[in-house]
Design brief:
homodimer; about 180 residues; mainly alpha; about 65% helix; DNA-binding
Chain lengths: ~180, ~180
DNA sequence: GCTTGTTATGCAACGAATTGCATAGCAGGA
DNA sequence: TCCTGCTATGCAATTCGTTGCATAACAAGC
């Protein structure tokens, strides 16, 4: 898997500039694929030279021109080809889990500090969950009126919601465990 | 966060060679931090030159010598320092979510292929959950008799179990959604 | 009038990760 | 006997990701 495919999906949902894509990666798409604006600009150029996207310069008065990208038929074929490949196993990187196991080699004070940090981390994810729930109400109020794309976006969002809920429950378990040591 | 810290935790739990670490990353530690043998060898060398670990050559007849690493006091201090830093936000990379949203731009045949792939993916994660549950019974049969390190390992494993259960439920939701399109 | 923030793009440098390949001996099965 | 697979380590090349910085114009608040 590469960033290219996430960009193709995002541009098919809605064409836009590199900057707009970077915003979307911070919000929606970034829930399951993160990227900085540097990566996005670099990859967009390569994709254009490969003929997966094309662009047109849009002059704007008062601010720099922007370059609006949209997916070419070749880009769409490339995406469809990738969609039909098997899903690769994920590369998991869960820093908090490493720290929890590491806490066995720290002292009382270190474990107290970890509890404080877990509480902070939990509050962050509670806020994330609330953002998801607000977005769900706003964007998907009535399931029967959604088109295919929206139904698929909704089921992915439900995955994010389920993940955050699971995480909050687990963090409560972690806090209980740390406090009982 | 860097690979270094995961290696320090693993070597503190049990000293070993680069190869053994690579095995562990495939099994236990790899549940929340993946690494290949190449990364591990490279990082171990840097860690040794920084004085975080030391090693001794162990001659073995019939097969290549192995180099057994263990954590130095400096390495342990380094780990403790890192443990007390705030947890960084995770870089999420969830390929399947991208493919599901991408399915809006594929045809009937593509969505059928995706259903097949999700079923395969689900079976993989069901197997993972069963491995975790078997390991839990084997390694943590009686919570009251566990030491601090084991309790912490157990709560991390419970996180893995909760994640896999959440994922299976969500994949059922995904399958329902795809089949109703 | 000054600072901060937002839109919009990009270069350069560095460090990390991945992929392919190589060595080397032994064990076990077809 | 040959092939595959496992233990055990490592080089080299390439690609990917991150960080710092730079430009440029405007809007809003102090």
């Amino acid at each position: 898997m590469a960033l290219e495919h996430a960009i193709l999906v995002s541009l098919l949902e809605q064409p836009g500039s590199g900057y707009e894509l970077a915003r979307r990666f911070e919000r929606s798409i970034g829930r399951f694929w993160t990227a900085t604006h540097q990566q996005i600009y670099r990859v967009l150029k390569r994709m254009e030279s490969d003929g997966w996207v094309d662009s047109q310069e849009i002059g704007q008065d008062g601010r720099p021109d922007k370059r609006a990208y949209s997916v070419t038929p070749l880009g769409r074929e490339t995406l469809v080809g990738w969609l039909r490949e098997p899903v690769q196993p994920e590369a998991v990187r869960h820093e908090l889990a490493v720290k929890i196991r590491g806490a066995a080699f720290d002292d009382e004070a270190g474990r107290t500090a970890l509890i404080t940090e877990v509480v902070r981390y939990r509050a962050e994810h509670e806020a994330t969950l609330n953002r998801y729930l607000t977005g769900e109400k706003r964007d998907f109020p009535d399931e029967t009126e959604l088109d295919t794309g929206q139904r698929l976006q909704h089921v992915v969002l439900r995955g994010g919601i389920a993940y955050e809920r699971m995480l909050l429950d687990w963090l409560d378990d972690v806090l209980d465990t740390l406090r009982q040591l």
